[in-house]
């Protein structure tokens, strides 16, 4: 995978504030890639960022990640859905305009894709 894309995705995740979540698609639109690529970057290189703040648009994560994410969500005040299968995405979604502004500053030193 392209090193620049990896760096852009990781920096985008770093801009999601504690207590907020975004979807793979939100980040993909911000970075200029696809949601599956965002997921692949987080799978392979995301252990050093707040990966639990990135879910699908319903607030779900794969089962193997859900237990680990739930601990972080609880610590950050991100509420679980009544089913316990994901977070209350709409309630905790980050402000995408602020995220875009913060992301632009965070990648200012990188070359454009």
- Which percent range describes the beta-strand content? under 5%
Number of domains: 1
Order of helices and strands: HEHHEHHH
CATH level 3 topology: Arc Repressor Mutant, subunit A
Number of strands: 2
CATH superfamily: Winged helix-like DNA-binding domain superfamily/Winged helix DNA-binding domain
Which range best describes the helical content: under 10%, 10-25%, 25-40%, 40-55%, 55-70% or over 70%? 40-55%
**Biggest sheet layout:** 2 strands, parallel
Structural class: mainly alpha
Shape: globular
Average of the residue pLDDT scores: 95
Gyration radius, in Å: 13 Å
Distance between the termini: 13 Å
At CATH's second level, what is the architecture?
Orthogonal Bundle
Strand order of the largest sheet: 1-2
Describe the structure.
The chain is mainly alpha-helical and 113 residues long. It has a single domain, classed as Arc Repressor Mutant, subunit A (Orthogonal Bundle), CATH 1.10.10. 53% of the residues lie in helices and 4% in strands. It has 6 helices and 2 strands, in the order H-E-H-H-E-H-H-H. The protein has a two-stranded parallel ribbon with strand order 1-2. The longest helix has 14 residues, at 63-76. The mean pLDDT is 95.
Write a short abstract of this structure.
With 113 residues, the chain is mostly helical. It has helices at 3-14, 24-31, 35-45, 63-76, 89-92, 96-106; strands spanning 22-23, 54-55. Helices cover 53% and strands 4% of the residues.
Descriptive key words:
6 helices; Arc Repressor Mutant, subunit A; two-stranded parallel ribbon; single chain; 113 residues; globular; mainly alpha
